[in-house]
Design goal:
Layout lengths: L4 H14 L17 E4 L5 H11 L4 E4 L7 E3 L6 E3 L4 H12 L18 E4 L16 E15 L8 E2 L1 H8 L5 E2 L2 E2 L1 E2 L7 H10 L3 H5 L24 E6 H8 L1 H8 L11 E2 L1 E2 L20 E9 L6 H7 L10 H6 L21 E3 L1
Parallel strand pairs: 1-2, 1-5, 7-13, 10-11
Antiparallel strand pairs: 3-4, 5-14, 6-11, 6-12, 6-14, 6-15, 8-9
Protein name: PBP domain-containing protein
Keywords: Signal
């Protein structure tokens, strides 16, 4: 029987209050499903897994982007489809799930009702839309991240660059720093790191495709500094959240059950304008270069913002996810209680809409 909204909300709160969280390592165990099914991204996989385990009660389940089988199943019946590997693909799957009535499909499959939310580390309102009303997704922030650059521990490049120097390097205007050659690397198309980094560097995908930036021809995986080894000239963008989480991988595994691979390979995380995105205490420094900070989101269908499950979990400063601010910080993200401006919002502030 379908419960009315006024009955369901207190019931949901009561169950959440008494539920015991369990560790969450990656995808849910085979045959395990939840009320809300979500998809991760390379940046948010670990925190979404931890939140699902800590909140407990069978309310949240997330399927990772980076690792796992090529096919996933998010409901007990049906809902078997190719695993989205990029944030853009995950949002397409979310729209296909919610907009099947408009003929939306994900890779040719009808996955109506199979996905309720996705994680995203970039606000990208202009993902190509299906033949349905535009801007039907809402990006609800739950944390803060920052991008800096990483170099090999044997690099000849400095461990401190200005924001302008980084822009000049990624616009192919600077090929050497202090007489040392520099080779800028990018993460793959469709990745959140690439989306945010290029936007902050002032480079568009269209201009890249047109060949306007010939120095940006090399790509490597997100949050993976292993390819830097042996290259004294290479430089890559790296998320502070991942740096912190990878550094604390063993402790986080013991405490949360979340498996995080340390792929820093001895690399050095650079400072920008003299400041590191990681504080002396090993947490995100919200005083880092603001142009390299960005919110991290749970993306949900806009017309479900008032539904009891979605609202209680994600929307507003007292949402279940926002109440886990200590866990979010422990997993490498910053946390903002209140909104600063349009691009630096408080947890649960459901304002930004997109495709």
């Amino acid at each position: 029987m379908k419960l009315p909204h006024r009955t369901l909300v207190p019931l949901l709160a009561a169950v959440l209050a008494t539920a015991t969280g369990t560790p969450a390592a990656a995808d849910p165990a085979t045959g395990t499903y939840a009320t809300l099914a979500g998809l991760g991204s390379a940046t948010t996989d670990h925190v979404q897994n931890a939140l699902a385990g800590t909140i407990g009660g069978g309310w949240l389940a997330t399927w990772n982007a980076r690792y796992g089988s090529d096919t996933i199943q998010t409901r007990a019946t049906g809902c078997e489809f190719p695993r989205p590997r990029t944030p853009a693909d995950a949002r397409l799957a979310l729209r296909a799930s919610h907009e099947g009535r408009f003929g939306a499909r994900y890779r040719g499959l009808d996955i109506t009702g199979c996905v309720d939310f996705v994680g995203a580390a970039a606000y990208d309102p202009d993902v190509p839309a299906f033949p349905a009303p535009a801007r039907t997704l809402t990006y609800v922030p739950f944390g803060v991240d920052a991008l800096s650059y990483a170099v090999s521990n044997h690099s000849d490049l400095p461990d401190n660059l200005t924001f302008v120097q980084l822009q000049r390097i990624y616009r192919c205007l600077t090929s050497a720093v202090g007489g040392v050659a520099v080779t800028p690397l990018l993460t793959p198309p469709g990745s959140d790191t690439r989306t945010v980094w290029l936007e902050r560097m002032g480079v568009s995908e269209a201009d890249l495709a047109a060949g306007d930036y010939p120095c940006l021809g090399r790509t490597i995986e997100e949050h993976d500094a292993v390819p830097l080894a042996g290259h004294v000239d290479h430089l890559m963008p790296f998320a502070a959240s991942q740096w912190i989480a990878q550094q604390n991988a063993a402790a986080l595994l013991a405490e949360t059950g979340v498996v995080i691979s340390d792929r820093r390979a001895g690399a050095v995380l650079g400072r920008v304008d003299g400041r590191s995105p990681v504080s002396a205490a090993g947490t995100q420094d919200l005083g880092f270069q603001p142009r390299l900070q960005h919110d991290v989101y749970t993306v949900v269908p806009s017309d479900l913002l008032d539904s009891p499950y979605v609202s209680h979990m994600f929307v507003g400063p007292n949402a279940a996810v926002c109440e886990e601010w200590a866990l979010i910080r422990k997993l490498g993200f910053g946390f903002r209680y209140t909104t600063v401006d349009a691009t630096h919002q408080g947890c649960g502030d459901a304002v930004h809409q997109g495709n």
